[in-house]
Design brief:
With 292 residues, this protein is of the alpha/beta class. The chain is built from 10 helices and 10 strands. The structure holds glutamic acid. Glutamic acid binds next to loops. This is tRNA glutamyl-Q(34) synthetase GluQRS.
Length: 292
């Protein structure tokens, strides 16, 4: 059998301009692909219809081309494939692992505040810092659920974590790889995400579900992404196992910090790559400054 080439992907969200952190991640993917004689795909993760904009997508192509990157066409754009993610969610529903949740963010916060007042203890949070879901809608009367769904009440779908973990082997893990070609197992602990949202209220998917479904569909063998997504991999491995999908190898790279040591981010208004370019900095200088 001819061994297949490794497949890497860079998967930005067009909800703002790319900054140096994205440039680093994209260049690192390309570098790994070169080193491992693999292929590089680009995926546009634009399921957040409220925040993603076509002009940001165009800017992604411009910025990456300016950096000297090449990727295979066609580019997969997630918002074109909601039916595909709906089907993946359907498979989890068939296994009775999802339940509708009607809670607003405020309702969750209020419930947690009440419980904290009762117990005098701080409520646990997930790795992203969000309050763990207190399970309010997990135990609703089925008749009430039917009623609320029939009137079209907006709802998300959450994973029933305890039920999902009950289907899992004793311990779950993925394999991490590095530039020296070392591969080592990493145990995961999806439980720390609680009953996470797998299908959001506004769209028939979530970041976690679409990333897992697409990585499998595109036969991604090596995922290279920032350390800020390392904890999410625990949930991804769980979803992959439940859906019968392969788990790629992962490399979570360190994040590029701004001059005062904060993580670069679109929400912090970090300097966009386009602004760096407008200052007259060349692509070669950017690549060099990032260690390539
Ligand atoms: N779309 C995600 C982001 O822009 C990256 C997802 C991933 O690499 O898994 O942060």
């Amino acid at each position: 059998m001819v061994p297949t080439a490794p497949i890497f992907r860079f998967a930005p969200s067009p909800n703002g301009r790319l900054h140096l952190g994205h440039a680093y991640s994209a260049l690192l993917n390309a570098d790994f692909a070169r080193q491992f004689e693999g292929r590089l795909l680009l995926r546009i993760e634009d399921i957040d219809l409220g925040r993603c904009r076509p002009e940001f997508e165009t800017a992604i192509y411009d910025d990456l081309a300016w950096l000297g990157l090449r990727w295979e066409e066609p580019v997969r754009r997630q918002s074109d494939h909601f039916d595909f993610y709906r089907a993946a969610a359907g498979r989890l529903k068939d296994k009775k692992l999802l339940y509708p949740c009607f809670c607003s963010r405020k309702a969750v916060a209020d419930t947690v505040a009440r419980r904290e007042a009762e117990t005098g203890e701080a409520w646990p949070r997930d790795p992203d810092g969000a309050l763990l879901y207190p399970g309010t809608c997990c135990n609703l009367d089925p008749e009430e659920v039917r009623q609320r769904l029939s009137i079209g009440e907006p709802h998300a779908l959450r994973i029933h974590m305890t039920a999902a973990l009950a289907l899992m082997p004793e311990s779950l893990s993925y394999r991490r790889f590095d530039r020296e070609g070392r591969i080592e197992p990493v145990k995961v602990d999806p439980h720390r995400w609680g009953d996470a949202v797998v299908v959001r209220k506004e769209v028939p998917t979530s970041y976690h579900l679409s990333v897992v479904a697409d990585d499998a569909l595109q036969r991604i063998t090596h995922v290279v992404r920032g350390q800020d997504l390392e904890a999410a991999t625990d949930l991804h491995v769980l979803l992959q196992t439940l859906l019968g999908l392969p788990t790629p190898l992962y490399h979570h790279h360190g994040l590029i910090l701004d001059p005062i040591g904060d993580k670069l981010s679109k929400s912090r208004q970090s300097e966009a790559l386009a602004d760096v370019r407008a200052r007259g900095v060349t692509a070669a200088e950017v690549r060099r400054s990032l260690g390539f």
